[in-house]
Specification:
This protein is α+β, with helices and mostly antiparallel strands. Among the domains are: 137 residues, Jelly Rolls (Sandwich); 60 residues, Alpha-Beta Plaits, CATH 3.30.70; 117 residues, Jelly Rolls. It contains 14 helices and 40 strands. The protein is globular, with a radius of gyration of 29 Å.
């Protein structure tokens, strides 16, 4: 056997230095002799739990000596013939400790982590199941160099050591964190297009601050600053990460007031890791369904998923999503149901997923514990057994395995600098980065954690609008197009091919139960009363806040803003509470899931009971639609719908917009009949996007609008409001019933030149700020308040800047009102229902209309569909 194939992912010229981050060694760096591993039989065991002796049954190994301070990247791919399931692990030979591992469901594995030059390593491959006796191994070493160093790298050839080692029993399964010494570069503000490449002197550590945002306009303006805005906030504030002095200046220059929540995030990260180690050391088993006491690694998730499927073959099935990630990792999940392999049995589907965002580790833990909850409960709890029997449950704990693996294996740093991989949020797409940052593996690249796309801004739902960044380096970068990412296309595939009546996507750390819509200008759906009631019920269990997503701030391209509007299946984001994106395990996972102190849901059931309530909703026929009828055994029914939905007007990097683009959705789900009568749980045939919008009827006339007088004189320029109260103002009154019913108030000011800047703030009679508008680069401000209470108000107008202070560009203004918008209804849509015989012949077709909670009898669709449809349409026989 010859040299290992060279990884195209890391091809670079010899001696190249990429921003001082890493140097990839050229061809000939790693050699296996041979690169084909063999095992005569499979053994169902963990490959990463221990370093097996040479010649152990079901395993093969190669030994290497690292030639670099940097990374080892080991990969498996199938050999010839059947694929089977092989796993991979890299061990430190001296200690037996696992360095990296991968345990997905096939033979396509990626194990990657940090190593030191001269470190002796054993790469172990294990045949878990299947008939494949061989697998191909590839190994690369990638050198990391200090930031800014110009080092010439001489290509070296690394060959496996041919000695047979004595087996060493490992003392732990945690990868060794042998990260080479590296200076910390300045974090780039995400609105920029290039990370800063100078080494700063940072006197103030990264901080978490609470920014005052009393109005939705403030929240949306905060989102335009390119800061790391968290999903944690309330009606008057949002928490923001300030990585450095540049971030602090950006916030200050924008006029926002803030208070410190966490003074040193780096120290907190190190302390949290220590707290987790102490908790695991003193806690043999937690209250969680699995008894887990520590955060899982990616390989833990993968191995546990297939072990659950092996142990409970009639209840649990493991599967691989159709698309691998940018770095070649499989995305795996599990399905839980009675007769689990009969996926087209017509039961309603509950889909739970975690870790769209890499650093949000508790999201994956809660999803995985929910799987254990259902399995344990099926055997030991009659209520859960009944719910599992009436539903199908799909769980994908890690939607973004590339990003999660990087964050989970990084050293606890927490300073949010460019190369703080622990705090990576996005995936590993390189295609939108400038060429100088589009090289290298994701765990060590020139742009650090800034490279990639935010998967939860990449779905088609209102994609391209506000609440997502257009700059490639932004933490909420939306991607080049809707569904440009394999991670989001995987979710689309699953939702589009199954009747997912209930979808839950888990995030951290805001303690929220969020429902659609993500942007305030999209009126709530017709389902709003029932939608709110379901969210409120879950929030009563975990003591989170239940609200529409836009109340935190506008977001577009999110999971449920696509899934719900396109399919009608209930969709929620639950922001798991806690202290930090991945706070101490005992608090962020154990307490929040089980409803124990110090969680807000202590004594109320926690997320465990919220998830059970959601599953109860899945099982309730009143919450979806049901098709009934009869068909011969073995015939296949198919529901189909194809449609286009426009995106938002697409915001451009310069702030302008282009027309919406249209996304095509193709929904196809199947039911395999067992003979005789059938019942099929489906989503309503009319998708919510066209069904209509929820509203209320006016109870009185709208108040007439009127112009307002500009007070005499011009106040001086003031860029420090409200600390400096210099401004001018005018008063106005809002009428109430029975005189007027106002659904919307808008205070408006206008001027001539966009380089002039007036700001507008509106206060009620008690002095509370109720709405504001403080944009830049415009010729107007509009402060909007929905359903304004009757009473007296004051508008304050601040002279923020003038094109020419010597020639004042003054404002004119008015107050306008609008009536409440009544509920509106759109057209009805149908599914196309077809029936195909076991030989593949189309034998029946019908259009089916079904509303939420409705049961529709489609009759003998496989034998009399055309006749039955005409009979229903005419009200009689023909």
């Amino acid at each position: 056997m010859g040299q290992l194939p060279r990884r195209q992912l890391v091809v670079l010229a010899a001696g190249a230095v990429l921003a001082g981050v890493f140097v990839a060694l050229p061809a000939g760096t790693a050699v296996a002799a041979p690169n084909v591993l063999n095992a005569d039989r499979s053994v169902t065991r963990s490959c990463f739990a221990s370093l097996l002796p040479a010649g152990a049954a079901g395993a093969d190994r190669r030994e290497f000596t690292s030639t670099v301070d940097g990374l080892i990247q080991a990969r498996l791919k199938p050999g010839t013939g059947a694929e089977g399931d092989w796993d991979l692990a890299v061990f430190d030979k001296a200690t037996g400790g696992v360095v990296a591992a991968s345990a997905a469901l096939r033979s396509r594995e990626v194990a990657e982590s940090f190593v030191k030059k001269g470190q002796q390593l054993v790469v172990q491959a294990c045949r878990y199941s299947g008939s494949a006796r061989t697998v191909q191994l590839g190994v690369d070493f990638l050198a990391l160099t200090p930031q800014g160093t110009s080092t010439q790298t001489t290509p070296t050839q690394t060959t496996p050591t041919q000695t047979t080692p004595t087996q060493t029993t490992p003392t732990q399964t945690t990868p060794t964190q042998t990260t080479p010494t590296q200076t910390t570069p300045t974090q780039t503000t995400p609105t920029q297009t290039t990370p800063t490449q100078t080494t700063p002197t940072q006197t103030t550590p990264a901080q978490l601050v609470r920014v005052e945002t009393p109005t939705r306009a403030d929240k949306n303006r905060l989102n335009t600053l390119g800061l790391d805005v968290t999903e944690k906030g309330d009606a008057t504030s949002v928490e923001v990460v300030l990585a450095d002095g540049k971030d602090r200046k950006t916030l200050s220059d924008a006029g926002f007031k803030s208070s410190v929540v966490e003074a040193d995030l780096s120290a907190k990260s190190v302390q949290d890791a220590a707290t987790d180690r102490a908790y695991a050391a003193k806690t043999p088993s937690s209250a969680l369904p699995s008894g887990r006491t520590t955060y899982r690694h990616l390989y833990d998730y993968e191995f546990e998923i297939k072990e659950l499927a092996r142990k409970y073959p009639n209840l649990v099935s493991a599967f691989t999503m159709p698309e691998s990630t940018w770095e070649g990792r499989d995305v795996v999940g599990l399905e839980i149901a009675t007769d689990v392999r009969n996926t087209s049995d017509g039961k309603p589907v509950d889909f739970t997923m975690g870790v769209h965002h890499a650093r949000e580790w508790p999201a994956g833990e809660h999803a995985m514990e929910w799987a254990y909850e259902l399995i344990n409960g099926y055997y030991h709890d009659n209520t859960i057994r009944g719910l599992v029997g009436r539903t199908r449950n799909i769980i994908v704990p890690i939607i973004n395995p590339d990003g999660f693996d990087i964050s989970r294996e990084a050293e606890p740093k927490g300073d949010f600098s460019t190369f703080d991989y622990e705090m990576k949020r996005k995936n590993c797409n390189v295609n939108d980065s400038p060429p100088q940052y589009a090289t290298g593996v994701c765990k060590a690249d020139p742009a650090g954690r800034l490279r990639g796309t935010d998967p939860n801004r990449n779905y088609a739902g209102f994609w391209g609008g506000g609440g997502a960044e257009t700059a490639w380096s932004g933490d909420t970068f939306r991607g080049s197009a809707p569904f440009s990412e394999p991670e989001t296309r995987n979710v689309r595939w699953l939702v589009s091919s199954r009747q997912v009546t209930n979808l839950m996507t888990l995030h951290t750390v805001a303690a929220l139960v969020l429902r659609v819509p993500g942007i305030a200008d999209t009126r709530p759906p017709l389902d709003e009363p029932a939608y709110k009631a379901l969210g409120d019920k879950m929030a009563s269990r975990n003591a989170y806040t239940s609200e529409p997503s836009w109340m935190l701030y506008d977001t577009t391209g999110t999971t449920e803003d696509w899934s719900y509007w396109a399919t009608g299946g209930w969709g929620f984001t639950i922001e798991v509470g806690g202290n930090g994106f991945h706070g101490p395990y005992a608090d962020s996972v154990v307490a929040e899931y089980e409803g124990l102190a110090p969680a807000a849901g202590a004594g109320k059931g926690g997320n465990r009971q919220a998830f059970l309530d959601f599953l109860g909703n899945t099982a309730d026929p009143a919450q979806h639609s049901t098709l009934i009828g009869s068909a011969p055994k073995g015939y296949q029914l198919k529901l189909h719908k194809t449609f286009q939905t426009p995106s938002s007007p697409v915001v451009q990097p310069d702030g302008s917009t282009k027309p919406p683009i249209y996304n095509t959705d193709d929904l196809n789900s199947t039911l395999t009949t067992t003979g005789g009568r059938f019942a099929w749980s489906v989503n309503p045939s009319t998708r919510p996007y066209v069904a209509g919008r929820y509203g209320r009827d006016p109870q009185g006339p709208v108040q007439p609008g009127y112009a307002v007088a500009n007070p005499a004189g011009v106040p001086p320029i003031n860029q420090n409001y409200p600390a400096d109260t210099t401004a001018e103002s005018f008063a106005f009154h809002v009428d109430g019933l029975p005189k007027a019913d106002n659904g919307k108030l808008s205070v408006n000011i206008n001027w001539k030149n966009p380089t002039t800047d007036w700001d507008l703030f509106v206060y009620d009679a008690a002095g509370n700020l109720v709405t504001s508008s403080a944009n830049g680069g415009t010729t107007s401000e509009h402060a909007v308040l929905f359903d304004p209470p009757a009473g007296d108000y004051k508008a304050v107008v601040v002279n923020y800047d003038q094109t020419d202070p010597a020639v004042v560009d003054d404002w004119t203004g008015d107050v306008s009102f609008a009536s409440p918008i009544p509920t509106t209804y759109g057209p009805k849509e149908a599914y196309q229902l077809t029936c195909t015989s076991p030989k593949g012949k189309l034998v029946g077709v019908a259009d089916v209309y079904a509303d939420r909670g409705q049961t529709v009898d489609v009759g003998e669709v496989c034998t009399r569909s055309a006749h039955a449809q005409k009979q229903r349409a005419s009200g009689g026989t023909r």
